[in-house]
Amino acid sequence: MELEELRRQIDAVDDDMVRLLVSRIEIVERIRALKEGMGIPLEDLSREADVVNRLSAGLPDSMKPCVARLYAALFEISKMNHQSQSNTQDTMAKYVCDLCGYEYDPATGDPDNGVAPGTAFENIPADWVCPLCGAGKEDFSPVK
Ligand code: FE
Taking the model in full, what pTM does it have? Predict the structure, then answer.
């Protein structure tokens, strides 16, 4: 039936959209961590406007307001996500490597090794190792 087939297509598009949304939010968090490190302001309204203009450029006029509204929502979602992450980060424990003393801080993560800022130690992949000495997760202890 055509309706069911179309719904399957929508489901596939939705799966892609959510996967891309998660990926976008992770990249935004990395940019945020970099900006914090460099001491530059987190919010950049002209960059947000550039993004919307670039994406709208080739679209029919009827689609432009859709892109503008979608991205207004996305920018809002990213900010919301950051605030809730900042709140949970306050309660996420730091872990120290028993072998070399390297300290894992969930607020900064380990982006060089694929661990996004805001990742609790418990959620780091099991094959992650200490960036300084190569010790496994089992050699880490919570910082009291
Ligand atoms: Fe270590």
Answer: 0.57
Work out the angle at residue 76's Cα, subtended by the Cα atoms of residues 72 and 80, and round it to the nearest 5 degrees.
Answer: 170
116 CA to middle of ligand 1, Å? 19
Give residue 96 CA to ligand 1 midpoint distance, Å. Answer: 8
Give the per-residue pLDDT at 84.
77
What is the b/e burial string over 58-80, where b = at least 16 CB atoms within 10 angstroms of the residue's CB? eeeeeeeeebeeebeebbeebee
DSSP track, 92-108? SPPEEETTT--EE-TTT
Q: In terms of Cα–Cα distance, which of 143, 117, 139 is closest to 129? A: 139
Q: How far is the CA of 120 from the centre of ligand 1 (A)?
A: 18
CA 15 / ligand 1 centre spacing (Å) = 38
> Can you name the residues that pair with 144 across neighbouring β-strands?
none
Beta strands in the chain (DSSP E): 95-97, 103-104, 140-142
**Residue 104 Cα to ligand 1 middle (Å):** 10
Mean pLDDT over the full length of the chain: 91
